[in-house]
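Annex B. Sample input.
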Amino acid sequence: MSKKKDRPLPQSLGLPRTGVDAHAHLDATEFDEDLDEVLMRARESGVAAIGTVFMGPDAYLKGAARFDAYADVFFLMGLHPEDAGTVDTGDIARMERLFRDTPRFKAVGEIGLDYYWDVSTKEIQQRIFRDQLALARELDLPVAIHSRDAEEDTLAILLDMGFHDRPLQWHCFGRDLFFARELLSHGWHLSIPGTVSYKKNTLLMEAVQKIPLERMFVETDCPFLAAEPYRGRRNEPAFVVFTARTIAELKGLAVEDIWTACGNNARHFFGLI
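Annex B, continued. Sample output.
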């Protein structure tokens, strides 16, 4: 990772090792060559745990072994709405077996609806979403929600399936204060990505100022959506410190307090402590 005068290293913030990257994709091919270095930078930057997301049982079986040596990585697994049209009839049952056999799985996700990409019908997406919500209830696990251009239907299904006041992470929250308050009214947690640091993202900034700290996580969604000053580059867990720094600036609090509080929220939510 090259260093520029106007691009501080994440380690330079000097944060304690109390942070959690609540949503990452470390099995992505972008990390095939340097996963050891990526995880070392995360530790040096104060990241104590990383939730890596597997997009279904095939992805898990293909990629899980690479994390055998990394006890600070915990797992989520879900069938993404973009893949709903290719889901095999036995995938939910396979997921159930893996969840029951693998203690490192801490949540079902990311699951939900995505109407932005025209890759499968709404009906198929909604059916797969409901099936996975039912699985999460049966296993008594939290869920991590993906919703893009589908918020009304996503909320309706969640409430119909009884997820009011159940543990839920709204992954990659990027909406305004009005929608944040709607999600908070159901007892859910909002996971804030690096996009909060983008200067034109004023509605998200205004929302983050008002979202209670105790209901907030920080995440990278790496290798995507790197925070400033690394916007446009491959994202990685260490860069989540810059998301915490932006939130601290917006709330007028010390970055160490934001960092540790969001980390503690994630640890409790995912059952890491």
